[in-house]
Amino acid sequence: MNIAALLLAVLLLLFFLLLFLYEKGRTDERLIAVTATLGTLAAVGRILFAPIPNVQPTTFLVMISGYVFGMRTGFLAGVTAALFSNFYLGQGPWTLWQMIAWGLSGASAGVLRVLIEAKGPGTVLLATRSKRWLFAIVCLLWGYLFGWIMNLWVFLSQGGSVTWGAFLAVYIRGFAFDTAHAVGNFLFAFLLAPGFAKTLSRYHRKLLIARLSVEEEKP
Amino acid sequence: MIAPTDSRWRKIHPVVVCLLLLVHGALVFFWENPLLIGGQLLFLILWAKRERIFVDLPSYFRYGWWIALVFLLINPLCASNGVTFLWKGPITPLIGRLDLTAEELGYAGMSMLRLSILVLLSVMYQRFIDHDRLMLTFSAWMPRFVLTAVLAIRLFPFLEQEMARIQETMRLRGILPKSDAWRDRLVHRLFLFRPLLLSALEGAWLTAETLYVRGFGSGPRTVYKRSRITGDEIMGLLLVLFIPVFAGFALGFDFGRFQFYPRMMWHDPVGDLLFLAGLSVVWILPLYWLLRRQTQ
Question: Which chain A residue has the Cα nearest residue B21?
Answer without folding.
Answer: A92
